[in-house]
Amino acid sequence: MSEPVALAPRDRLPPHRRVLPLTAVAAARLLAFVRPSVIRWCLEHARRGAAPATTGQAPAARQHIVSVSLRCAGQGCLERSLAAALLCRFRGTWPTWCTRVRPHPFAAHAWIEAEGHPAGEPHPPGHRPLLSIAPCPTGPPAPGDETAHGSRRALPLRGGARRWSLPCRRARARVSRASRAPRHCRWQ
Questions:
Q1: In this structure, are residues 67 and 20 in contact, taking their beta carbons and an 8 Å threshold?
Q2: To 5 degrees, how large is the angle CA 44–CA 46–CA 48?
Q3: Rounded to whole angstroms, how far apart are CA atoms 179 and 146?
Q4: Residue 167 neighbours by CB under 8 Å, 6+ apart
Q5: How far apart are CA 129 and CA 164, in angstroms?
Q6: What average pLDDT does range 31-43 have in this prediction?
Q7: Do the beta carbons of residue 88 and residue 94 sit within 8 Å?
Q8: Which of 16, 18, 21, 97 could staple 133 via S-S, CB 3.0–4.6 A?
């Protein structure tokens, strides 16, 4: 027998503002079916380079997710929290993504926090922390520190200047076949 569920209030977004929330919901729907270690790996890589979310940005992201997805407006807390965290990341910030579990009787809950406050959801009493992914402590690189992010590698050039080296298929395709393009192209 199913129990009645009251859905969260949903505001209607204009069509041009639905694209990012719908993309975040689609990505969260895929992430919700993988192992927790894969979720943790994906979220730890997604949070890199993002500023911490404020108490205004995290609830707004959650509200936008709830407004575009009926599943997220119901009891789908994992998918809702993943989508809200990814939507914050699309906008350049990262909230703290939290999961907690209560062993007897078993119950699990996932949500996002900003500045230590849950975004639009009550903090469940009696739950033990299971997994929490906070914003990176370093944030974006300082103006003089080009190599702060592990995904980019600065190559020294003549005159002390630096050029970023990233894999780039389009630039490789533009190079003629006779020049034998290297595996990693260099952005100018």
A1: no
A2: 75
A3: 29
A4: 183, 184, 185
A5: 40
A6: 94
A7: yes
A8: 97
- Ordered alpha helix ranges (H), 5-133: 19-31, 36-46, 57-68, 70-73, 77-90
Burial class of residue 154 (count of CB atoms within 10 Å of its CB; 0-12, 13-18, 19+): middle
CA angle 77/43/171 to nearest 5° reads: 135
- CA–CA separation, 78 and 43 (whole Å): 13
With CA atoms as reference, report the closest residue to 103 among 120, 122, 124: 124
Find out whether 95 and 110 touch, Cβ atoms under 8 Å: no
Domain spans of the chain?
Answer: 15-133, 153-186
- pLDDT tens-digit profile of 111-162? 999 988 888 887 777 788 888 999 987 645 555 544 444 444 444 444 544 4
- Between the alpha carbon of residue 57 and those of residues 51, 53, 90, 103, the distances in Å are 11, 6, 12, 32
